[in-house]
């Protein structure tokens, strides 16, 4: 049955705008530039991390000659601490997994600082370290990349006044949501490809790498990364809708990111103060407050957090729309 | 406002109505209580100098800008709302850019689909529009490769996608070469009666050629509005220039009793103002006047009906332009 039989619907318009946004990004090579940016960043960090894993492999082959302590330094090197941790036994045939199982390794400390439950620890220890590293770096850097690459989408249309052609044909909400959806789709693809890039580098460099384990972990963690990025995309959309130019949208969105970060850290800083309830509420409205739960094992724990993050994203976009609907184009 | 038309259109006869609309950009007053009524089915010209408020008027009518005060009504459906006016009201914005990296066909297809045209209808419709604006051979080219004039034509084309009832064109022939401009003017004139078209321009000759109604805007207010024939006096005024020789004013007045005849010695122009009546059109009055003059031995240099729109605009008394306490001027609306 044709959609046309029902006439234009908001969902149809959002889909049309999102599709056009994606096609326009592909044609203008903006999508390629964004993809290149993400892949380069992913490749760079993955290469650094895999190099560490390579050293772990070496250590597994010759533990007496090549141990890595908590600061990532080999014994005997300047600054090396006495009595640094030795890698715990890794699963047979998978020495690089030792970076997770070794309680003293910096990566182990970084990952397990996120979780407290033994169940979650056990779950993480079974995952591909490369994917965990991808998840960790995505949590840190992708919000920044979103603000740089996605914030201009609606603002650019204001600057060129191209939005006026569309505003005669569909609502501003449909237009802004369609644009955001297009950016979200691109973001989903580029983060997934970043993860695959990390796995490809691991496959190239690590002798004990298993594509099966890597892809399985990616299937588990990529949706979490995507969900975590959604509220940041919402903030970028908010800023984009309410800026007069692409550049001001970028600046505005970077300020927004800083505000979220400050709100989160203020809650930690004033946890024992009289203002704690206020700061905790503020923190709850930031994606940072929900990051830790994304490391958990059970989907029944992670799923609601992902929905909450999607809700936060929608909330940011809707607040942006409240202003956007009233502004001059 | 000086409304020359005897009876302004009733609400149901109006395609567009703006009542007491005000718009300020900070201290700059762009619209100062503008009243405008565009009759359905007319080709309506909105003229005025730069900064008069034409583009702001357009932008408010299209919902791109919000009026500070006043009421806007399009097709009896209130202020512009895509839910009510999608596909019924279209516009050519001034200085707005289409997606540079998309092809002309992609761009028109996208806008047509958003307008509500379905997948099957859109292909034929885009082909019709491309033919209309003579860009069929550039259909697959990216928008950024088009010249300014071609971009303007794509902009005009998108405004005629589907079957809109009201089309607003802001400076449609700006940047077009004379042949293209003529072609667009002919197309627009041919739309008379089928839909309402509002054209904003400061090219008075163009407005006079294409439009049947006009409003003159200055300093954010309409200073004169009505049918072109009435504004220019085409149906109620004859100007006859006489060469050296007799000026038989008395004979002519005797032939047309009750009509007003004025003689300007400096330009040797006889201006005859009259009311059209059933069975007596402007042509009949012209015939009677010329016969009386020729019979009395006058030597006629030229005959003209009414005044040009440009002359009419330039002759507007300063009092017609409302005084304003605030700064009034152009803003990139």
Q: What is the structure about, briefly put?
A:
The complex is a heterodimer of chains A (329) and B (333). In chain A, 69% of the residues lie in helices and 0% in strands. With 329 residues, chain A is an all-alpha fold.
Key features of this structure:
heterodimer, A: 329 residues, mainly alpha, 69% helix, globular, disordered N terminus, B: 333 residues, alpha/beta, six-stranded mixed beta sheet, four-stranded antiparallel beta sheet, 11 helices, 26% strand, elongated
Which helices and strands, and how do they pair?
The complex is a heterodimer of chains A (329) and B (333).
Chain A: H1 10-27, H2 30-61, H3 98-101, H4 106-112, H5 118-125, H6 129-149, H7 152-160, H8 163-167, H9 172-205, H10 211-241, H11 246-269, H12 276-284, H13 299-324
Chain B: E1 14-25, E2 28-39, E3 43-47, H1 54-61, E4 69-74, H2 82-85, E5 89-92, H3 104-115, H4 119-132, H5 148-159, E6 166-170, H6 178-190, E7 196-201, H7 204-210, E8 213-218, E9 221-227, H8 228-231, E10 237-242, H9 249-255, E11 260-264, E12 269-273, H10 282-295, E13 300-305, H11 309-314
Helix pairs in contact in B: 3-4, 9-10
Order of strands, main sheet of chain B, comes to: 5-6-7-3-8-9
Number of helices of chain A: 13
Mean pLDDT of chain B: 87
Radius of gyration of chain B: 23 Å
| Averaged pLDDT of chain A | 83
Shape of chain B: elongated
Number of strands of chain B: 13
Element pattern of chain B in H and E: EEEHEHEHHHEHEHEEHEHEEHEH
Strand content of chain A: under 5%
End-to-end distance of chain A, in Å? 36 Å
Rg from alpha-carbon coordinates of chain A: 22 Å
Percentage of residues in strands of chain B:
25-35%
| Main sheet specs of chain A | none
Structural class of chain B: alpha/beta
């Amino acid at each position: 049955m044709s959609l046309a039989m029902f006439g234009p619907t908001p969902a149809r318009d959002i889909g049309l705008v999102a599709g056009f946004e994606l096609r326009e990004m592909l044609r203008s090579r903006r999508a390629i530039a964004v993809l290149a940016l993400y892949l380069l960043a992913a490749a760079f960090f993955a290469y650094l991390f895999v190099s560490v894993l390579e050293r772990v492999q070496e250590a597994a082959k010759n533990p007496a000659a090549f141990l890595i302590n908590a600061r990532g330094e080999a014994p005997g090197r300047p600054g090396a601490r006495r009595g640094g941790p030795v890698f715990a036994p890794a699963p047979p045939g998978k020495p690089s997994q030792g970076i997770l199982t070794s309680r003293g390794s910096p990566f182990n400390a970084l990952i397990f600082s996120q979780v407290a439950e033994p169940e979650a620890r056990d779950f993480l220890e079974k995952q591909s370290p490369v994917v965990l590293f991808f998840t960790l770096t995505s949590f840190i850097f992708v919000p920044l990349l979103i603000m740089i690459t996605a914030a201009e989408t609606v603002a650019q249309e204001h600057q060129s006044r191209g939005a006026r052609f569309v505003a005669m044909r569909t609502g501003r909400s449909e237009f802004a949501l369609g644009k955001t959806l297009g950016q979200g789709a691109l973001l989903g693809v580029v983060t997934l490809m970043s993860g695959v890039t990390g796995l490809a580098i691991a496959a190239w460099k690590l002798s004990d790498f298993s594509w099966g384990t890597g892809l399985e972990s990616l299937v588990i963690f990529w949706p979490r990364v995507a969900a975590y990025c959604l509220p940041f995309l919402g903030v970028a959309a908010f800023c984009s809708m309410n800026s007069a130019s692409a550049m001001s949208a970028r600046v505005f969105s970077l300020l927004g990111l800083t505000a979220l970060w400050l709100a989160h850290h203020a809650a930690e800083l004033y946890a024992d103060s009289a203002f704690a309830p206020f700061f905790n509420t503020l923190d709850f409205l930031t994606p940072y407050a929900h990051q830790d739960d994304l490391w958990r094992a059970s989907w029944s724990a992670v799923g609601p957090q992902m929905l909450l993050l999607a809700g936060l994203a929608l909330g940011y976009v809707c607040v942006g729309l409240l202003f956007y609907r009233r502004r001059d184009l | 406002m000086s409304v020359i038309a005897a009876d302004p259109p009733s609400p149901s006869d109006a395609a567009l109505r703006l009542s007491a609309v005000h718009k300020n950009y900070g201290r700059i007053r762009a619209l100062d209580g503008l009243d405008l009524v565009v009759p359905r089915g007319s080709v309506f010209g909105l003229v005025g100098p730069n900064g008069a408020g034409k583009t702001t008027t357009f932008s408010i009518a299209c919902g791109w800008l919000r009026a500070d005060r006043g009421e806007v009504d399009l097709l009896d459906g209130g202020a512009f709302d895509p839910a009510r006016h999608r596909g019924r009201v279209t516009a050519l914005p001034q200085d707005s850019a289409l997606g540079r990296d998309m092809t002309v066909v992609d761009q028109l297809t996208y806008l047509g689909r958003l307008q509500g045209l379905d997948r099957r209808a859109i292909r034929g419709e885009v082909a019709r529009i491309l033919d209309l604006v003579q860009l069929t051979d550039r259909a697959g080219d990216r928008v950024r490769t088009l010249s300014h004039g071609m971009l303007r034509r794509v902009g005009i084309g998108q405004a005629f996608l589907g079957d809109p009832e009201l089309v607003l064109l802001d400076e449609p022939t700006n940047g077009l070469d004379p042949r293209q401009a003529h072609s667009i003017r002919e197309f627009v004139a041919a739309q008379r009666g089928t839909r309402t078209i509002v054209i904003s321009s400061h090219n008075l000759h163009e407005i006079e050629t294409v439009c049947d109604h006009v409003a003159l805007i200055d300093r954010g207010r309409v200073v004169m509005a009505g049918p072109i024939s009435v504004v220019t006096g085409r149906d109620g005024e004859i100007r006859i220039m006489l060469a050296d020789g007799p000026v038989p004013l008395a004979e002519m007045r005797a032939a047309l009793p009750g009509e007003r005849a004025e003689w300007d010695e400096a330009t040797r122009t006889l201006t005859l103002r009259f009311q059209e009546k059933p069975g007596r059109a402007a042509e009949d009055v012209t015939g009677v006047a010329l016969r009386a003059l020729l019979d009395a031995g006058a030597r006629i240099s030229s005959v003209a009906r009414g005044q040009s729109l440009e002359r009419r605009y330039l002759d507007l008394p300063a009092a017609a332009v409302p005084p304003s306490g605030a700064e009034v001027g152009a803003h990139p609306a």
